[in-house]
Design a protein that fits this description.
Order of helices and strands: EEHHEHHEEHEHEH
Strand content: 5-15%
Low-confidence stretches: none
Distance between the termini: 27 Å
Number of strands: 7
CATH topology: Aminopeptidase
Number of helices: 7
Helix content: 25-40%
CATH superfamily: Zn-dependent exopeptidases
Oligomer: single chain
Strand order of the largest sheet: 1-3-2-4-7-5-6
CATH class: Alpha Beta
Shape: globular
Mean pLDDT: 94
Radius of gyration: 18 Å
Structural class: alpha/beta
CATH architecture: 3-Layer(aba) Sandwich
Length: 283
Amino acid sequence: MTPAALSFDLLGSLELPASPLILSVPHAGRDYPLALRAALRVPIEALIVLEDRHVDDLAHAARATETMLVQRPARAWIDLNRAESDRDPKIDEGVSPATRPIDSAKLRSGLGLIPRRAGRAGDMLRRRLSNEEVVARIRADHRPYHQALSAALTAARARFGIAILVDLHSMPPPGHADIVFGDRFGRTAATRFVHRLEAVAEAAGLRHALNTPYSGGHILERHAEPARGVHAIQIEWGRHLYLDATMTAPGAGLGRTAGTLRAMLDALADEACALGGLPIAAE
């Protein structure tokens, strides 16, 4: 597949990463394909609730030399943080209740591989999707993203002796925390990495939580292999930190929050260098 055909933006190299950190931004896409628009029973504005709104702008502002993937199609088109098997029989003709795997809580709530619901707007599609339509999205959007992530992590692990996937998301203005770190309850990353992130958050005056209410999803589960030196952490940023008062566009806090994210990435790279035993590339 040529770069022009990819449905995500690739910054940096897959084959020769400049850092052991690989950044992933799977839910910030704001492209709504015509086929999705034609199938909607709700205004397209209702789908914004599914976006990790402008967290890609935050990632771009903080990134230095890290390889980074940023999905362009909106999450309403296909959710990269769900497994290919998380198909919802209520809208997907290619799967039946008799053959699908055990429902996850996300799938039951309408947030499967192809989202069925858009927050308070409810069911968002006027018709069910054919198996061919869903498979086409998997082949064009879901698999290439995960294949690229896997290639980047493998290359980083080979070059630095360790790789860390940082999966960036955002959340509505929270009640108990400004930022939530997720490591699937200790399964996807060494504790030392989370501790470094928590220290940066505290230095920035941010309230932080671990795995509650967001512990990470399919991206972490699929790509993390801590025993082989591939770690993965999800970071959920409160949108109040970097959006304006309307929660729809980047605000005055973007620069400050990007600086905090940059400090977190530097801390992770420093820890990776100590644990991996190989120097971090300077280019």
